[in-house]
Amino acid sequence: MRICLFNWKDCAHPTAGGAETYTREVLTRWAAAGHQVTWFAGAVDGAPEQERREGVTVVRRGGKLGVYAAARAWYARHGAGRFDLLIDEVNTRPFGCASWAGGTPVVALVHQVAREIWSAEFPPPLSWAGRYLAEPLWLHSLRRTPVLTVSASSSDSLREYGIRDIWLVPEGISRRPRPAIPRQARPTVISVGRLAPVKQVDHAIEAFRRLRRDLPAAQLWIVGDGPQRERLERTAPEGVTFHGRVSDEVRDRLLAESHVLVATSLREGWALVVDEAAAMGVPTIGYDRPGLRDSVPAAGGVLVPPNPRALAATLARKLPGLVAEPAEQGWPGGAVSWDELADRFLATALQAAGLLGRESGTGHAASLEHVSGRQH
């Protein structure tokens, strides 16, 4: 099949995150299976306008705001009639592919809605306009488009915007052996993610500050980079180490040396890092927030009320036991291998778009879940 996915970021973008990792893992497997795959994204300084990466043709046009008009213009000139399926991957704002696809089937992929993230990222009145005007208007445009999403939390949020044709697809994860290294001798808490307001890493630091009253030997590792790093470094107490943005291999090593992951985001689609930690034998204590309330229990972790006091109290109770008897490496519930995900995602997209009669990948029997309709 000939497939084109639209996302305003690709993995070359400096703010690429879990959604882009998910997309890359799926698209590269489709390309390896013989499909013709294109990823349209916004321009990135220093990156070519077009290149081939791991079998996927990556096209870059337009900036963060101009990418939407650039996508429509590029498709009219180069894409019309040349694809069998379009995927509108929504990172807050849809591309509106269904309005200009010219009859080519379209499905949307929504990892999460923004909602309260607007208030974390923007001051009023811009945050109010985004949350109560722009986002409802943008998501309203998807009400006639099949929407794929990764968690029950995101499905519930989408229904609140009037979207009914919703299909669940799982998260994916790589099965990598845990590095053969011991845990830290000191009680070690780790936070992994972009240092941006939505991740609320300041909550993790405040919880750690409280934890040290009970466990003065504890340490907190913060893995990731972002606009809040300078402020967080300036205000962090003794015992906090900032590792910056690291490779997957270094991240796995740091996870393997830790005793517990903390997840403090305002909202997630799923939170891939929870699965990555579980695969290294590290449980998560996470906020009871959308997305996290799906991934954390599925990976054997614990949910807490979303405030530093509750997080610190739970860490103080759980961490000594985890130091004495560290968790074992496991396979997170709710996640599948990337190979299986690629097959299931394509089968679900084709079913949602009414194209399931065509070849759907490498042959796995897909388990398709149509949230708002019958079970397949």
UniProtKB/TrEMBL annotation:
Gene Ontology terms, MF aspect: hexosyltransferase activity
Every Glycosyltransferase subfamily 4-like N-terminal domain range: 17-173
Keyword tags: Glycosyltransferase, Transferase
Keyword set includes Isomerase: no
UniProt xrefs under CDD domains: GT4_PimA-like
One family name in Pfam for this protein: Glyco_trans_1_4
A biological-process GO annotation: carbohydrate derivative biosynthetic process
Listed InterPro entries: Glyco_trans_4-like_N (IPR028098), Glycosyltransferase_grp1 (IPR050194)
Superkingdom classification of source: Bacteria
Protein name: Glycosyltransferase family 4 protein
Protein species of origin: Streptomyces kaniharaensis
